């Protein structure tokens, strides 16, 4: 009997000791480490209460931070080779005696007049540098990260976005993948990078319509990307990438961040025609995805898509436009283009501006409650 009591006593002491250790550890962590020393890398970081009520809990935070830093560093290293400096071409100054050093025979890499991003391996580069109409391609040269100097042989201006496309005599240049519309989402981390190697890590706060108007045109661009960290003057000409090193956006001369998808049509046109032939459908429309229908019992086709509507000039469908020739009219609701449904991520303008003049598109639309299809040739 005494032996049994002794054994029970030993077991109870062990249990109580274990419980005391657990409680003590929890108290030490909660009241000492977290609140006094504020060391978050022991366990988890809990943002559910103290960080704008985000409801975010990160476990093994030290590993997360280290891996993210490594990913950012790798992305910067991989994309920097696709950035170039643009310089005014300067003549070679020959020395009268010998081969003495002459500073005039060097380009100072921090004295560039602009910067560009390589978009094709055979030498096409996009830049927000303002190039005067009287300038000639021979007035400029491009210097890559490896210090190779390339002559410019062509300049093409995009009148819709005011970006310039220049071409250099080169091949096998390093290019990056373009980020599609549907992969640009609020909260995504982005890296702003310039020719000099300056970088800034931020995230997408929103994608908004610059003009904030109800009626939009299928043939003009107004959406821009807003970052949580506003780009200062140092990054006003930077290019934006995601953490994979893909091209996400470019900044124009007004410091507006434009998704690269807005330039796909211009790029494809250059590759095909060696000039920019922007696609035009010729309609004004209201994006139903940005509205909430009062009558919940109304048919679904009234809740999404693009309803053709009069613009500020009183015109819904431009005369002799692609839409006009296809038979579209005011009140028709465009549901999809080439089986791509119009939704929050893909509005009519985004889709049309990824095409080039001459492309044939299949439009599915509703007209007076009847679903129809028509083919249109973009002008």
CATH class of the domain at 284-377: Mainly Beta
CATH homologous superfamily assignment of the domain at 284-377: PDZ domain
Task: Please tell me the overall pLDDT.
Answer: 84
Range of helix content: 10-25%
Order of helices and strands: HEEHEEEEEEEEEEEEEHEEHEEHEE
Number of strands: 21
Q: How many individual helices?
A: 5
CATH architecture of the domain at 284-377: Roll
What is the third-level CATH name, the topology of the domain at 284-377? Pdz3 Domain
Q: Could you say which structural class the secondary elements and strand pairing correspond to?
A: alpha+beta
Largest sheet: 7 strands, antiparallel
Ranges with pLDDT <50 over ≥5 residues?
A: 30-59
Strand portion: 25-35%
What would you report as the Rg, rounded to the nearest angstrom?
29 Å
Termini Cα gap: 101 Å
Shape field: flat
Task: Give a brief description.
The protein has 379 residues and is an alpha+beta fold. The chain is 20% helix and 27% strand.
Descriptive notes:
With 379 residues, the chain is an alpha+beta fold. The chain has five helices and 21 strands. Among the domains are: 1-39; 181-271, Trypsin-like serine proteases (Thrombin, subunit H, Beta Barrel), CATH 2.40.10; 284-377, Pdz3 Domain (Roll). It has helices spanning 2-37, 61-79, 264-273, 322-326, 348-352, and strands at 44-46, 57-59, 83-88, 114-118, 124-127, 140-143, 149-157, 164-168, 189-193, 199-209, 215-217, 223-227, 239-241, 247-251, 257-259, 284-287, 306-308, 333-337, 340-341, 360-367, 370-377. Strands 11, 16, 17, 18, 19, 20 and 21 form a seven-stranded antiparallel β-sheet that branches. A six-stranded antiparallel barrel has the order 3-4-5-8-7-6. A six-stranded antiparallel β-sheet has the order 12-10-9-13-14-15. The chain is flat. It starts with a helix and ends with a strand. Mean pLDDT is 84; it is low at 30-59.
């Amino acid at each position: 009997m005494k032996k049994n009591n002794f054994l029970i006593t030993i077991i109870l002491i062990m249990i109580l000791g274990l419980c005391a250790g657990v409680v003590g550890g929890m108290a030490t962590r909660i009241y000492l480490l977290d609140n006094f020393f504020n060391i978050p890398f022991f366990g988890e970081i809990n943002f559910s209460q103290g960080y704008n009520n985000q409801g975010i809990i990160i476990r093994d935070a030290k590993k997360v931070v280290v891996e993210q830093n490594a990913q950012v560093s790798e992305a910067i290293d991989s994309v920097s080779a696709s950035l170039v400096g643009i310089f005014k071409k300067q003549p070679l100054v020959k020395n009268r005696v010998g081969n003495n050093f002459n500073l005039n025979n060097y380009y100072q890499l921090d004295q560039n007049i602009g910067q560009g991003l390589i978009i094709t391996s055979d030498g096409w580069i996009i830049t927000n540098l303002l190039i005067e109409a009287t300038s000639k391609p021979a007035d400029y040269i491009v210097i890559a990260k490896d210090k190779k100097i390339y002559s410019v042989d062509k300049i093409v201006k995009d009148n819709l976005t005011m970006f310039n496309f220049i071409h250099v005599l080169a091949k096998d240049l390093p290019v990056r993948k373009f980020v599609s519309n549907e992969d640009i989402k609020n909260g995504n981390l982005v890296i702003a990078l310039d020719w000099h190697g300056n970088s800034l890590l931020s995230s997408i706060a929103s994608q908004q319509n610059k003009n904030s108007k109800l009626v939009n045109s299928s043939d003009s661009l107004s959406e821009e990307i807003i970052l949580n960290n506003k780009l200062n003057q140092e990054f006003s000409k930077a290019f934006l990438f995601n953490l994979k090193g893909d091209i996400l956006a470019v900044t124009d001369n007004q410091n507006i961040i434009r998704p690269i998808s807005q330039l796909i049509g211009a790029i494809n046109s250059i590759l095909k025609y060696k000039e920019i032939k922007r696609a035009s459908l010729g309609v004004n429309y209201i994006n139903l995805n940005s509205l909430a229908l009062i009558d919940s019992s109304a048919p679904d086709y009234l809740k999404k898509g693009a309803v053709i509507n009069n613009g500020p000039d009183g015109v819904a469908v431009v005369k002799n436009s692609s839409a006009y020739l296809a038979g579209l009219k005011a009140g028709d609701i465009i549901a999809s283009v080439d089986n791509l449904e119009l939704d929050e991520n893909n509005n009519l303008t985004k889709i049309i501006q990824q095409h080039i003049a001459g492309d044939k598109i299949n439009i599915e639309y509703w007209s007076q409650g009847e679903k129809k299809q028509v083919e249109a040739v973009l002008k």
